[in-house]
Design goal:
Distance between the termini of chain A: 44 Å
CATH architecture of chain B: 3-Layer(aba) Sandwich
Helix content of chain A: 40-55%
Number of strands of chain A: 12
Helix content of chain B: 25-40%
Strand order of the largest sheet of chain B: 1-12-7-4-2-3
Largest interface: A-B, 108 and 73 residues
Largest sheet of chain A: 6 strands, parallel
CATH class of chain B: Alpha Beta
Low-confidence stretches of chain A: 17-31, 422-477, 485-489
Radius of gyration of chain A: 22 Å
Low-confidence stretches of chain B: none
CATH topology of chain B: Rossmann fold
CATH superfamily of one domain in chain A: NagB/RpiA/CoA transferase-like
CATH class of one domain in chain A: Alpha Beta
Number of helices of chain B: 5
Mean pLDDT of chain A: 81
Shape of chain B: globular
Largest sheet of chain B: 6 strands, parallel
Shape of chain A: globular
Bound molecules: iron/sulfur cluster
Oligomer: heterodimer
Distance between the termini of chain B: 65 Å
Number of strands of chain B: 12
């Protein structure tokens, strides 16, 4: 790809380096049928909902173009817009910080937390803070970071990692969630009710009670932002549960970590974005709650407001004239839900907080193509093109994958792709080997050094890093009868 | 070099190939739906708000106070907090059915946890998405008011209802130096995090009652 001056790439985090070797033989059958079924159900359900609400909008294509155009404009003149954003935020009473990389961002947040002399923060789900592993950094410094999104809470209490951008606990079923709540809640706050059942409504209620005490006492909250409007200094958080509103409203101090690519030039650019994002993401006309704030508002909400503008590899991606379009991504997850590869492998496999098709292009760009997983990710696709069609900001993911493959092959010589394919073929050709690979991946992935890492069998290249699909336990016909026959969606 | 200067330098270096300037950009393309007429827009608003499982009550201007009292009674509320600038008629109606606290009396947000309900006005309604936008003016109160209590009764006047999102964004454009926080509410708080089964009510108000005032005749 053509590049101008590239900034440095992002460091691969500790969680994702040093993945376990694929054991030569899998012993224990830790059946992963549940995860596969959950994932298929999830991706198909959201996909269908999305299709319905997108069909309601006659000008969807024009909207996609408007969305892409707004982001392209922001990226083309990012330096100017960042300066404008900084000026608007400062005028609104916010303190703006800049972070070259994850370590710098974490140090800034920790410094703010220390200034408030607290040992806990409440958090809204945020990809940027996951990317920089803020929770781990805070915990290492003796500060508890409470995740407040229901799915993130399930993941956190289960000592687990998210598997989907939008529904991060989709690999867990209701009885697992109940068990996690019963087992873990008491140690970190209000215990789960004695008579907790696995009804989703009861589980949500348990989370409500558990978290409310944290919201009401927290002095500091940490969030990300979906958009940051340069013109007005407005930050936007789009959510469903109200945990975002709690974090953005109740504490005295609010720290928002914003990737520099989240900038929108103008207030009016929110119009296409607020139409594109909810419909693409949850398949709703509008998500239940969106909060917009501009610095500190007199007598309303946090008065000590900080914004951390994060680079961490983004300027490196920006230097690539073809690759920079990946920075348009608004993290809606539509590309995950239509991806036949993601549907079968799940999100843990991509070796990053960014899974699915966007992860397959963004991770190797952010981190470079030196590690095994990043070299292999451009192959995590059948190039079917469904991701491009679904993408609300028209990122041409297949084009980027092909470009990146070319880069890997150039860098590695001719062997990379063929080795990847040969190894994958070896495993994929034999259902028993494949099943063994998956079971091994699941078992091996449980807990390493106190952290949970999933995946990484030894298939050769890209299949290495993900939960390999279990071969079907039923025929397509049986599946169809079961899934569609009872009208269960 | 400071982090700021270094990031800006990296970004400018990365975009050195760009020949345009921000000033070259045309106005944002506004992709709007045409309203099928006021009556249809109001019907669509009511329909979409209800579709997201909020309760919708349509009344004439003279019926608002009664509708507010009914909603509080039906929800079995004993207490309600009211924003300082709430319409006195609605305040009076609420006072007859519940114990009323004024926003100014509840200094600490945590105290709102013991309050059953809140009654507010709104800034904008959006028909296509079934959304109510609060700009937290005096008749809506600070953000915590409409967040912590479990029941939110929200009065939207017909004149506040626009057809689609671009129209709403246009109306809500912040005045320079006078930006207000905004809360966009589409139905009650919800999650689909457990097996994608929709559950209403996680952290925000679990019951949202929208009183739509059909004042145009
Ligand atoms: S690449 Fe496009 S479809 Fe995928 S998450 Fe980003 S914006 Fe959504």
């Amino acid at each position: 790809m053509t590049t101008t001056t590239p900034g440095p790439v992002q460091q691969t985090s500790l969680v994702f380096v040093g993945m376990p070797k694929f054991p030569t033989a899998a012993r224990e059958a830790l059946a992963n049928t549940q995860q596969r079924r959950n994932l298929r159900h999830a991706t198909h359900t959201i996909r269908d909902k999305r299709a319905r609400v997108v069909a309601e909008v006659p000008e969807w294509e024009a909207l996609r173009v408007a969305g892409a155009e707004a982001k392209d404009e922001a990226l083309a003149h990012l330096g100017d817009y960042l300066e404008q954003l900084e000026a608007s935020l400062t005028a609104n009473g916010a303190t703006v910080h800049w972070a070259r990389d994850a370590a710098e961002a974490n140090a800034i947040v920790l410094g703010i937390v220390r200034d408030q002399q607290v040992d806990e923060v409440v958090k809204v789900k945020s990809m940027a803070t996951q990317e920089i592993e803020l929770n781990e950094a805070l915990e290492a410094a003796g500060v508890n970071a409470w995740e407040t999104d229901l799915a993130e809470l399930i993941v956190q209490l289960g000592h687990d990692r998210p598997s989907h951008i939008l529904v991060p606990a989709i690999h867990r079923n209701r009885s697992e969630v109940r068990d996690i709540f019963r087992r873990e809640m008491a140690a970190v706050g209000r215990p789960a009710p004695e008579d907790l059942t696995d009804e989703p409504a009861r589980l949500a209620e348990a989370a409500r009670l558990h978290l409310r005490e944290k919201f009401l006492r927290a002095k500091v909250a940490v969030s990300g932002a979906n958009f940051a409007v340069a013109e007005t200094g407005t930050l936007v958080v789009v959510e469903s549960e109200g945990n975002g509103r709690m974090c953005l409203t109740l504490p005295e101090t609010l720290v928002t970590v914003v990737g520099i690519e989240k900038v929108l030039p103008r207030w009016d650019d929110l119009a296409p974005m607020l139409q594109l994002l909810p419909r693409s993401s949850t398949g709703e006309r509008m998500n239940p709650y969106t909060t917009m704030w501009s610095g500190a508002h007199d007598g309303d909400g946090p008065q000590d407001v900080h914004v951390v503008l994060l680079d961490n590899g983004r300027s490196h991606v920006l230097a690539d004239r073809v690759g920079r379009q990946a920075l348009r991504c608004i993290r809606c997850s539509a590309c995950l839900n239509v991806c036949p590869v993601y549907e079968r492998t799940g999100g843990h496999a991509y070796g990053s907080v960014y899974p699915g098709p966007i992860g397959a292009v963004l991770n190797p760009q952010l981190r470079g193509t030196t590690s095994e997983v990043d070299k292999s990710l451009p192959y995590a696709s059948s190039l079917c093109g469904a991701c491009f069609d679904a993408c609300p900001v028209r990122i041409d993911i297949p084009e980027l994958l092909v470009e990146l493959r070319g880069r890997v092959v150039e860098q590695e010589g001719r062997t990379a792709e063929s080795a990847a394919m040969a190894a994958a073929a070896w495993v994929l050709s034999d259902p028993k080997r494949l099943a063994a690979a998956q079971r091994a991946a699941t078992t091996a992935g449980r807990v390493i050094g106190g952290r949970t890492v999933r995946a990484v069998p030894g298939l050769g290249a890209w299949t290495d890093a993900r939960d390999v699909p279990t071969p079907p336990t039923e025929t397509f016909r049986q599946w169809w009868a079961r899934e569609r026959g009872q009208g269960s969606r | 070099m400071s982090a700021r200067d270094e990031i800006l330098a990296r970004v400018r270096g990365a975009t050195a190939d760009v020949v345009t300037t921000p000033a070259d950009r045309a106005p944002t393309a506004v992709v709007e739906e045409t309203s099928p007429g006021r009556a249809a827009t109001l019907d669509l608003f009511a329909e979409n708000v209800a579709d997201y499982r909020a309760q919708v009550v349509r009344v004439a201007a003279s019926g608002v106070a009664g509708a507010v009292a009914d909603a509080l009674r039906q929800q079995g509320c004993a207490t309600a907090v009211l924003p300082t600038g709430l319409d006195p008629a609605w305040r009076g109606a609420a006072t007859e059915v519940v114990r009323v606290l004024d926003e100014a009396d509840v200094r600490v947000d945590a105290e709102l946890d013991a309050v059953d309900a809140v009654v507010t006005a709104a800034a904008v309604g959006i028909a296509v998405t079934g959304t109510v936008v609060l700009d937290h003016a005096a008749d809506q109160g600070r953000r915590a008011l409409t967040l912590v209590p479990d029941v939110h009764v929200c009065v939207v006047r017909a004149g506040q209802v626009v057809h689609d999102v671009p129209e709403a964004v246009g109306r809500l454009r912040p005045e320079p130096g006078l930006a207000r926080p905004l809360t966009w509410v589409s139905g009650p708080s919800a999650t689909s995090d457990i097996e994608l089964e929709r559950v209403e009510g996680v952290h925000g108000p679990r019951t949202l009652v929208v009183v739509l005032v059909d004042e145009e005749v």
